[in-house]
Amino acid sequence: MSKKNTKNTKGKIINAAWDLFYEQGYDDTTVEEIIEKSGTSKGSFYHYFEGKDALLGSLSYIFDEEYERLENTLTDEMSCFDKLLYLNSELFSMIEDRIDIDLLTRLYSTQLITKGEKHLLDNKRLYYKLLRKIVADGQRAQEITNHMTVNEIVKLYAMCERALIYDWCLCNGEYSLYSYAKTVMPVFLSKIRL
C-alpha cells in the first residue's frame, strides 16, 4: 500500500471517528459506526488502531490536518506575529466547533499519565515544523528576538497554547477559548517581539 493511500485510509478513520465522537459522544460511538462512516474495512481499522481507545491519541492528527489546510492560506504579506495569531485563532475556533470538550479533557488526562508516546509533544508533527519555520523567518526578518533559540520560542508558544486549552477544559468550557486566546496570545507574543 502506498504512503498516500495509508495516510488517506488512516485519515478517513480518524476523521470519521472524531466526527462521530462530537456528534454522539465517545461512549455512544462504536467501532462499527466508525468503519461505516469512514468507508473503510474492519481489517483497515484494526491495522491502524487496537480499538476505539487508541483513537484518543489521534487528535494531534486532526490538529495537524487543520494546520496543513491553514498553512496554504498564509501569505508573505503577513508578519510572523500575524501568522502565529492567525494559526492560533483558527485552531481554537476549530476546537470549539468540532472537538467535544469531554474528549479533549480525556485526551489531556491520558497524555499526563501515559508512559508511552505523548502525541501532543511529538516534535515531528506538522504543528512544530510550521511553528519553527515561522519563528525562524521572524528571527531572520528581525521581528522576533534572537536571545532565545527557535526551539525555545516554539516550546514556549506551544506551552502557552496547551495551558489555554487545559484551563478551558478545567473550567468546562464556560468561556470562549477562541475569544480568550485573542486577548492572551498577543500579550505572550509581545514578550518575544523585537
Plain-language structure description:
The protein is an all-alpha fold and 194 residues long. It folds into 2 domains: 1-49, Arc Repressor Mutant, subunit A; 56-190, Tetracycline Repressor, domain 2 (Orthogonal Bundle), CATH 1.10.357.10. Helices cover 68% and strands 0% of the residues. The protein has 9 helices and no strands. Helix 4 (59-71) packs across helix 5, helix 5 runs antiparallel to helix 7 and helix 7 packs across helix 8.
Q: What's the layout of helices and strands?
A:
Layout: H1 3-24, H2 31-38, H3 42-48, H4 59-71, H5 80-98, H6 101-113, H7 126-140, H8 150-170, H9 177-190
Helix pairs in contact: 1-2, 4-5, 5-7, 5-9, 7-8, 8-9
| Helix/strand order, N-terminal first | HHHHHHHHH
Largest sheet: none
The count of DSSP E runs of length 2 or more, i.e. the number of strands, is 0
Low-confidence stretches: none
Question: What gross morphology would you assign?
Answer: globular
**Could you estimate the helical fraction of the residues in percent?**
55-70%
What structural category arises from helix and sheet content? mainly alpha
The CATH superfamily title of the largest domain: Tetracycline Repressor, domain 2
Instruction: Count up the domains.
Output: 2
Mind telling me the C-alpha Rg?
18 Å
Average of per-residue pLDDT values: 90
Taking the alpha carbons of the first and last residues, their distance comes to 48 Å
The CATH class of the largest domain turns out to be Mainly Alpha
- Number of helical regions: 9
* Beta-strand fraction estimate: under 5%
